[in-house]
Design goal:
Mean pLDDT: 76
Helix content: 40-55%
Structural class: mainly alpha
Shape: elongated
Number of strands: 5
Distance between the termini: 24 Å
Order of helices and strands: EEEEHHEHHHH
Strand content: 5-15%
Amino acid sequence: MGTAQCPGNQQTVGTLSADGRWHFKFVPEVCADCPLRARCCTGQGGRSLTLGAHYAELEAARLRQQTETFKEEYRQHRGGIEGCLSALVRGQGLRVNRYTKRAASETTCGRYLWLPLSTFSGPRAGWLDSARSSGT
């Protein structure tokens, strides 16, 4: 069972859907009287919150990014990745989506982005291997 707390310190119990997402719905009457309502929710009902199926992994990755170990590893490879992406944007028009269908867009992005990145070897790509093997 999961719980969520709003900025006004009200708590609610969430429901887990079949696809792994958590859904939280706060009581509309409580939200209506809350002084933080204007900053919290804009709809007629109360605040609602949905967390994706991979929220736990996302939160763990965000925490890992705050560690000194991650920051040092990131500094070591960042220049190579940023340069590669810059060249792809300038030379291949990577940011311009020429397709309206999602599958075609993903295929185009994959062709230009993942193939060049997968050709990196040596210390520049070492951070990827350690992240994959550790499960983060």
